[in-house]
Amino acid sequence: MTIHNGRGRLYGLGIGPGDPELITLKALRLLQAAPVVAYPAPDTGDSLARAIVSPHLKGGQAEIAIRVPMVTARFPAQEVYDQAAEELGEHLEAGRDVAVLCEGDPFFYGSFMYLFGRMAERFQVEVVPGVSSLTACAATLGTALAARNDILTVLPAPLDAEVLKQRLQGVEAAAIIKVGRHFAKVKQVLDDLELSDRAHYIERATMETQRILPLDQVAEEGAPYFSMILIHRRGEAWT
Amino acid sequence: MTIHNGRGRLYGLGIGPGDPELITLKALRLLQAAPVVAYPAPDTGDSLARAIVSPHLKGGQAEIAIRVPMVTARFPAQEVYDQAAEELGEHLEAGRDVAVLCEGDPFFYGSFMYLFGRMAERFQVEVVPGVSSLTACAATLGTALAARNDILTVLPAPLDAEVLKQRLQGVEAAAIIKVGRHFAKVKQVLDDLELSDRAHYIERATMETQRILPLDQVAEEGAPYFSMILIHRRGEAWT
Questions:
Q1: Distance between CA A193 and CA A189 in Å, rounded?
Q2: Which residues of A touch B118 (CB under 8 A)?
Q3: Which terminal Cβ of chain B has fewer Cβ within 10 Å, N or C?
Q4: Contact between chains at B159 and A149 (C-beta distance less than 8 A)
């Protein structure tokens, strides 16, 4: 382990899927102790990550919103992370710890890895795992994600319909994440594979705005980014 | 929602991967409030789940060890869960809440589903998601599990070598769980696919006995049940 005398430490804190009570004791402790708190935020408007932890903030911490354009690019502009790494790096150089808030878990399809990739060689970084949307959705739906020797496949909905179809063919257990505006495509794939009966749709799991809907009641263009479909071939037969 | 007047409520509490500080505020609150706490335990000896939460127990709670034979059968004898459901059901009928401790997350390859399947129709059941070993291993290794539109595949190591090989061929991101005594088989598959360079081995992540080892330093018959191998084709290039 390299010694980084006098430098601050960077924390990637998994803050869980949305319910402020689904943060871990460890993430809460590190969050409240850090002099600087950073979080992703949209171009304009409020940060969801900050909103999740807001009941736990006591004031007096410097805050850095990492404003990521969500709509224009398929993946966030890397310049945003170059700049954020520089800004956070200045605090670390000055000896101040920085806690970066990560919705769900930092390394489960999270944007923290862009900061990690830029900063882990220069600074001490600790990643604190969090409750991911994957397990939060299963818990809320009351349907097991995977059991015994099931193979579990996690598929991002932006993938092409043909790829989704190929990977869902004969699947045992699957989670389709980031459904959002790809809902109609995903629904068609599930219908084609006759998997719709086994599919469970949920949006914003554990948040106050959480909704569970039958697939045929989801407005085709209306699914939010934080929506997921879980599929299990055995259905509810867990005994 | 059915009304269950006067009955207790059953909680399946994800208590996280091993570090007692990786329990959520919600699971901790429900754990401490429940008059009855149940947990899986081996035939003889101590329960790992109970050990994980032991710093949080204040005494005065009834405890039920659900003793599951680990070695003899490939999957636990279902009679154990029939009997446990009956015992827990008596507490619930008498109006006492019961908190069942689940290592990691209750629905991510957990045994709680066997109780859920037996009890969810008769009693109110709430499942509280937890930090799974999946994200805990990635956080500890400092290697992202999945990013962007990666397909993530979770493979239980007890699967046949041919199945593992087929599913790992050309994989983007994979986690091989429950490695344990299947290590030699898994290692051979990874070697055959030339994936060993990209594979990260970790055992008992976030526990005091945690170890990270290069694949070729793991004793072939020595891996514990709580061991995992993470693979990502991109390696560490997350920028």
A1: 6
A2: 239
A3: N
A4: yes
Chain A: nearest CA to B106, how far in angstroms? 8
Domains of chain A with bracketed CATH: 10-131 (3.40.1010.10), 134-232 (3.30.950.10)
Contact across the interface for B135 and A239, Cβ inside 8 Å = no
Numbers of helices and strands, H then E, in chain A: 7, 10
Please give the residue of chain A at the shortest CA–CA distance from B133: A129
How far is the C-alpha of B62 from the C-alpha of A111, rounded, in Å?
43
Chain A residues lying within 8 Å of B147, measured CB to CB:
109-110, 113
Query: What is the residue-wise DSSP string for B102-169?
Result: ESB-TTBS-THHHHHHHHTTTS-EEEE----HHHHHHHHHT--SB-TT--EEEEETTS-HHHHHHHHT
H or E element: which one contains B64? strand B62-67
pLDDT at B120 over 80: yes
> What local confidence, expressed as pLDDT, does residue A228 receive?
96
* CB nearest B129 (choices: A22, A25, A152): A22
The pLDDT tens digits for B16-50 are 999 999 999 999 999 999 999 999 999 889 999 99
pLDDT band for B71, please (50, 70, 90 cuts): low
**Which pLDDT value is given to residue B76?**
62
Cβ–Cβ pairs < 8 A, chains A and B:
198
B94: which 2 tokens?
Answer: 């008498």
Question: Cα separation of B204 and B182, whole Å?
Answer: 16
| C-alpha distance from B81 to closest chain A C-alpha (Å) | 9
Partner-chain contact A135 B129, CB within 8 Å: yes
ipTM score assigned to the predicted complex: 0.94
